[in-house]
Design brief:
Shape of chain A: globular
Strand order of the largest sheet of chain A: 1-2
Distance between the termini of chain A: 33 Å
Number of helices of chain A: 23
Order of helices and strands of chain A: HHHHHHHHEEHHHHHHHHHHHHHHH
Oligomer: heterodimer
Order of helices and strands of chain B: HHHHHH
Strand content of chain B: under 5%
Strand content of chain A: under 5%
Number of helices of chain B: 6
Chain lengths: 510, 164
């Protein structure tokens, strides 16, 4: 514990340089702007920023990416409150109470609540990251091929289920499509080139970053350009300073939402949007003012904003300890860490324990920055929402194209970006979530190697996959999730639990 | 959505079966006496099979919901839908730039042409006021020049990228 505090203090002191503080400020501000603008998601922002920072020192680059991540998830609340359009999918739950508050002339108050919720959520998530990550990393040292195989399967199953609650089958199809796409290229055991059809460029596989820029950038541009133009709510903004009394009044909601948000973040491939929805649902159940939810409830808004920002440190926990992303933006962060030579995974607390606490310090700095910008720059930042999308989207597409290209200076990566953009658009229109697809792309390699290694270790005997204690827990959990999505079984679970089953809202992705 | 599910389920089944067949054709390196459990096709074959099964479930479900009743006349409404028109324009502009202009024209010129056309095409159709159209053209021209110069300079001089 004391060693952890020491490492955290060292990490924080390491960033006490003018250059680091400058990086924190501009990257968080840019993140807020990216989050605010409908069509620009946290995933795209981090992916584009990865292409722009990959020649920097690892510490500076990761700091910038984390500030961008925290800023974008917070920034999404602005457009959710003022436009009724979530700037990022993470702010979808924020629209439910944020927009009614803005329409009733309390836009400033709504943004103040969003700022305080986001800051508190980040802090709770950060504290949980600092305490859970070392424990989880130690626990993950027990993981072998069998456990990693089931972890990859569980990640796809739970992500597919939670990001597509109305129709988990579509979430699972998206996840397995991602796994299959990860099979393209040279495999790691015999160096055989799979599904390359004679194209040399496919030998290295489909690049994760071009694919993400396509699925979250190009696809989103197409979605935005087919929709009618948006209108800013006509409301006086008023004071954007949060009231301490209000924050104290909803302290239970804040703590509960912070913990739920972090847990949703930890679950592979689920992320900030579900962090917000789950916190919102829990707050509604526990609230004394249930009737106000959906029509301008301060408590509902606080829960959603605390939940989504708490999910950011939550999603980083499995990135650091298992090299498995908790959300789509965290998948990009994971890819960026590999690019910069950081090796996240179970060995992190042995090889580079200081890095875990440096990440905690980075989140704290980003949180302080969103507090500063939330209090001081709300009004000028709102001007960004007045930029017509017809002028913004071509600039974003130019950045998507050059961003995909600049990672490896390959025109082929532009084609990968275009391919995933068109596929991503079609999938989105047909209600397929993007997060399991991304998770599949990341986990495909782990699944492939773990299954084959496991089979070699047991000489083809599958029993070992099922009887080892941790494996057993993970496959049984996966099975329960699958069974729960079958209507009659869910109703049976509901009856056994003594309450009605609720079909919650489906959610998008990072 | 049942009709869309019907079509996508067939695509998913075909994709899964295609992956399965391709995986079964992958070498097993018997002559090298490699462990049969490490052959390259094993995991993609499983993934292809699972995708086909999930596609089949989606297919059955969409058929039960009447998704197979696709009418040819329905396509007319789809094609002449304003949203489809906007999508087609967006696709033509973006694909034309990224897959057509980039690499064939100097990067700055390709970017300037794309930004100018994108802004002009969308803003031109949004109004029939000639004054606003002239303003929009002027804005598009300035924006195209600024974006082309700034992006080219930043990537070439700051990030040292050899532009396509």
């Amino acid at each position: 514990m004391l060693e952890g505090l020491q490492l955290f203090a060292d990490g924080l002191l390491g960033f006490a340089t003018p250059q680091s503080i400058f990086n924190v400020l501009w990257a968080t501000l840019l993140g807020i702007l990216v989050g605010m603008m409908p069509g620009l998601t946290a995933t795209l922002g981090i992916a584009l920023m990865t292409t722009l920072t990959f020649k920097m020192a690892p510490g500076d680059a990761i700091l910038i990416l984390i500030c961008m991540y925290v800023g974008a998830i917070y920034g999404g609340s602005r457009s959710a409150i003022l436009l009724n359009i979530p700037g990022t999918p993470a702010s979808a739950a924020t629209t439910l109470d944020g927009y009614p508050l803005a329409r009733s002339g309390e836009a400033g108050k709504a943004m103040a609540i969003a700022t305080s919720g986001s800051v508190m959520g980040s802090i709770i998530g950060m504290l949980l990251l600092a305490t859970i990550a070392p424990v989880l990393a130690n626990f993950a040292l027990e993981f072998g091929a069998f456990e990693f195989f089931w972890l990859a399967v569980f990640g796809i199953i739970i992500s597919g289920h939670l990001t597509s609650l109305k129709d988990p089958l579509k979430g699972w199809i998206a996840g397995f499509l991602g796994l299959l796409a990860a099979m393209v290229g040279q495999e790691g055991i015999h160096a055989y080139q799979r599904f390359t059809f004679g194209y040399i460029e496919l030998g290295g596989g489909l690049g994760l970053l071009p694919a993400l820029i396509g699925a979250f950038g190009f696809a989103e541009i197409l979605v935005v350009m087919t929709q009618p133009s948006y209108q800013l709510v006509k409301s006086k903004v008023g004071s954007v300073i949060p009231s301490p009394a209000e924050v104290f009044r909803y302290s239970r909601t804040i703590v509960r939402s912070g913990i739920i948000g972090t847990i949703m973040g930890i679950i592979p491939g689920v992320g900030e949007d579900m962090g917000a929805w789950a916190s919102y649902a829990a707050a509604r159940r526990a609230s004394k003012e249930k009737a106000r939810f959906g029509s301008g409830s301060i408590e509902g808004l606080m829960a959603a904003e605390t939940g989504n920002n708490a999910a950011v440190p939550g999603a980083i926990i499995p990135v650091l300890t298992l090299a498995v992303p908790g959300s789509a933006p965290a998948a990009v962060l994971l890819a960026a860490m590999f690019i910069h030579g950081v090796r996240p995974g179970p060995l992190i607390m042995i090889e580079s324990p200081a890095f875990v606490y440096e990440v905690v310090a980075m989140i704290l700095l980003a949180t302080i920055a969103i507090l500063i910008f939330g209090l001081m720059l709300t009004r000028p930042l709102l001007l960004v929402l007045r930029v017509p999308r017809e002028r913004l989207m071509p600039i974003i597409f130019v950045l998507c194209t050059i961003g995909a290209f600049s990672i490896a200076s390959r025109v082929f990566d532009i084609w990968v970006m275009l391919f995933f953009g068109v596929i991503g658009y079609a999938m989105r229109r047909m209600d397929y979530p993007m997060a399991p697809l991304v998770l599949g792309l990341v986990l495909g390699g782990i699944l492939d190697k773990s299954l084959r290694r496991g089979l070699v270790l047991t000489d083809g005997n599958l029993t070992e996959f099922f009887v080892r204690p941790i494996s057993a827990v993970i496959w049984i959990a996966s099975l329960i999730v699958i069974l729960y999505s079958v209507g009659p079984v869910r109703r049976l679970f509901g009856r056994l639990a003594g309450g009605p089953t609720v079909d919650d809202k489906g959610a998008g992705s990072g | 959505m049942a009709k869309a599910d019907f079509v996508t389920s067939i695509v998913v089944i075909l994709l899964g079966l295609g992956a399965l067949v391709q995986s079964l054709r992958m070498p097993r390196f018997e002559h090298l006496q490699v462990d049969p459990y490490t052959v390259p096709g094993i995991v993609p074959a499983i993934l292809g099979a699972v995708l086909s099964v999930m596609g089949a479930i989606l297919l059955v479900r969409s058929i039960l919901r009447g998704g197979w009743q696709i009418k040819a006349t329905g396509f007319g409404g789809l094609i002449f839908n304003p949203a489809t028109g906007r999508l087609a324009v967006g696709l033509a502009l973006t694909l034309g730039y990224a897959a057509g202009l980039v690499g064939r024209l100097p990067y700055w010129l390709a970017t300037a042409v794309f930004v100018f056309l994108f802004v002009t095409v969308y803003e031109w159709s949004a109004t029939d006021n000639s004054r606003r159209r002239v303003m929009s053209l002027a804005t598009a021209l300035v924006l195209a020049a600024v974006v082309a110069v700034v992006v080219t300079m930043v990537f070439q001089l700051v990030f040292l990228v050899r532009l396509p």
